[in-house]
Amino acid sequence: MIEVPVRRDGPWPVVAHVAALWVAGAVTTLTGGWLVVLAAFLHAGFLLVPPVLLLAALTYAVGTATRRVTSLTAGHGIRLLWALAYTFLSTVAVLFTVSALDALGTPFPPAVNLVLLTLPFPLVACAFVDRWTVRGPALVVLLTGVALCVWLPEPVPGAPAGSPVLREFGQFLRAFVTA
After folding, report:
1. 18 and 126 in contact (C-beta within 8 Å)?
2. Long-range contacts for 129-137 (Cβ within 8 Å, ≥24 apart)?
């Protein structure tokens, strides 16, 4: 019989890990959000580097403080790769969320916008946790969100074919590349 190790540390380290990464993402969004707008306006993609580096540094610090939550934060090298992967995936998820909110065209109060914009941070954090009871639902929510956005119905009859979220996402990305 295979003996399965039982964790006796409870859910609190996972909760602290996910909450700390959500706070790091919110801090990055609040402090670096204006640089994203400026980068899109000036067509200067290099202005995106400081917020991304801030998020990577904060993520590495959180991974150092909460090493027991995921095996990907055990050593320094793997923790750096984990921080970079988390930063990349959560940044793409936030940009996708911005595109989805733009495509919906529904104005939300600023507090709701902040929660919606930072929601990908804890979801991506949960996707990296070792426990499948945390990872599984997070992956389901992330993949469901992507699927709903890709197949989101057209808001206006007669609009161009295709997903409005993907069109917004493409326009958002083209703003940084074209001069």
Report:
1. yes
2. 129/14, 129/17, 129/18, 129/69, 129/70, 130/69, 130/70, 130/71, 131/7, 131/14, 134/14, 134/18
Of 96, 118, 145, 107, the closest CA to residue 33 belongs to: 118
Whether the predicted model's global pTM rises above the 0.85 cut = no
5-53 confidence digits (pLDDT tens): 545 567 888 999 999 999 999 999 888 878 877 877 887 878 888 888 9
In a domain, 2, yes or no: no
CA 76 vs CA 5, 31, 65, 108, 123: distances in Å: 25, 27, 12, 41, 23
Residues 6+ apart with CB under 8 A from 60: 79, 80, 83
Length of the chain in residues, anyone? 179
SS3 50: helix
Q: How far is it, in rounded angstroms, from Cα 70 to Cα 129?
A: 5
Residue 50 domain boundaries: 12-177
For residue 1, being part of any structural domain is answered with no
Please say whether the beta carbons of 35 and 50 come within 8 A: yes
Count: domains in the chain: 1
